Amino acid sequence: MNIKFTVPCLLGLEGLIAEELKAMDAQNVVAQNGRVDFEGDESILARANICSRYSERILIRMGEFHAETFEELFQGVKKLPWEQWIGEKDAFPVKGYSLDSKLFSVSDCQKIIKKAMVEHLKSKYGVNWFEETGTVYQIQFSIMKDTVTLFIDTTGAGLHKRGYRPVANSAPIKETIAAAMAELARVKHYHTLYDPTCGSGTILIEGAMKALNIAPGIRRSFSAERFENIPQTVWQQERMRAGDLVIRDADFKAYGSDIDFNALQIAQENARRAGVAMRIDFSKRDIKDFKRRSEKGTVICNPPYGERMLDIKNAEDIYRTMGKIFTPEKGWAYYIISPDEEFETCFGRRADKRRKLYNGMIKCQYYMYFK
User: Fold this and answer.
1) Rounded to whole angstroms, what are the CA distances from 224 to 16, 50, 307, 369?
2) Which of 10, 215, 327, 331 is 20 to 30 A from 31 via CA?
3) How far is residue 313's CA from residue 301's CA, in Å, rounded to a whole number?
4) CA distances (Å), 270 to each of 111, 161, 215, 232, 341, in order?
5) Long-range CB contacts (< 8 A, 24+ apart) of 267-270?
6) Interatomic CA distance for residues 311 and 329, integer angstroms
7) 201 CB-side CA count, 13 A
8) How far is CA 210 from CA 78, 79, 266, 359, in A?
9) Residues 6+ away with beta carbon under 8 Å from 9
10) Per-residue tens of pLDDT for the chain, all 371 residues
11) Domain extent listing, the chain
């Protein structure tokens, strides 16, 4: 079965997601602003959920049409082939959003979409009442500039929820962003990785998982595992495939430090849950006491900043300290994410490269020093 998919994503990650989907053998991959579209079969559906490091979720794209009135919305939804996925007893809750459109009431749109789906499924199953006690198919809609797009969510809890971080410190970085930072820093299986402001360890854990090629979703479940027309063997095969791709003889090593002992305890537990605890050493240390443990190394960090945990002055003092200890040396590279546009001034050097990334809703720059 050829299925059309959409991946909603954080701004700045579209290119990375498109490349990883192509590497998974997805077809007709097209990156757009805030989303990536692609096509594939049931195996690609499972593979994308299990293996994507940067995506938010994998959605089946049921259809797209123009609508400026509730009648146009009703008729457009009613025409879509919902019976291909949703059975007579299945549940199909509806949620979504509307931007810059004549149909701006989300609650009214939810009701119209639900009613149209019921009418369509009534005609297919010959029943007047849907008990909705079976498998849940979460329906999502997007209305942007009067263009309506309907989806079925295959993921459940967002893909950034890998399952290893039940508890985080007060200012965690999203797993998908941490994974993207590791990718942009070109972390490899033979690297030594450092994070001297590691908090609950997310950057180091994502770096280790990337270096060892551990699929981020291999230890969690997905809503589509309960979909009746996707055989369980598909999920079993894709998990086996992901397991076979793990690099077990890597030379990768990571070192994390922080001044918060409680955060370090959480980091150690998170690393254990992620299956990378043997690869990461954690220690309590102030950033000014940063210690190199190898001839070469890659430093990736998300230092505290004013909007997050500290006042601006303290944050900029940390940037100055980093500028002194992260000295340009052959074999060393430094990657720092910050929303502070004055970061380079405090750090004392212009970055070799910058890239805009969003950590949640916070617009940041990823400052890269590798020359």
Assistant:
1) 24, 11, 38, 41
2) 215
3) 19
4) 41, 12, 16, 29, 31
5) 267/198, 267/199, 267/200, 267/201, 267/204, 267/205, 268/201, 269/167, 270/164, 270/165, 270/200, 270/201, 270/202, 270/205
6) 31
7) 33
8) 43, 43, 20, 19
9) 17, 34, 35, 36, 54, 55, 56, 176
10) 899 999 999 888 999 999 999 999 999 999 999 899 999 999 999 999 999 999 999 999 999 999 999 999 999 999 999 999 999 999 999 999 999 999 999 999 999 999 999 999 999 999 989 999 999 999 999 999 999 999 999 999 999 999 998 765 555 799 999 999 999 999 999 999 999 999 999 999 999 999 999 999 999 999 999 999 999 999 999 999 999 999 999 999 999 999 999 999 999 999 999 999 999 999 999 999 999 999 999 999 999 875 545 577 788 899 999 999 999 999 999 999 999 999 999 999 999 999 999 887 889 999 999 99
11) 3-153, 175-216+247-369
Cα–Cα nearest to 364, from 321, 302, 312, 319 = 302
Interhelix angle 202-211/175-184, rounded to 10 degrees, is 60
Burial class (CB in 10 A: 0-12, 13-18, 19+), 337: buried
Angle 196-314-263 from CA coordinates, rounded to 5°: 40
Q: Rounded to whole angstroms, how far apart are CA atoms 184 and 20? A: 13
Residues with Cβ within 8 Å of residue 371, at least 6 apart in sequence: 328, 352
The structure tokens 């290893």 sit at 164
Residue among 369, 367, 371, 360 at smallest CA distance from 11: 360
Q: Which token pair is 254?
A: 């990571």
Distance CA 14, CA 16 (A): 6
Residues, the chain: 371
Architecture per CATH, domain 3-153, reads as: 2-Layer Sandwich (3.30)
Question: In degrees rounded to 5, what are phi and psi of residue 340?
Answer: -85, 115
83, 124 Cβ separation under 8 angstroms: yes
At the topology level, CATH places domain 175-216+247-369 in Rossmann fold (3.40.50)
Pair of tokens at residue 194: 């450092």
Q: Quick check: pTM over 0.90? A: yes
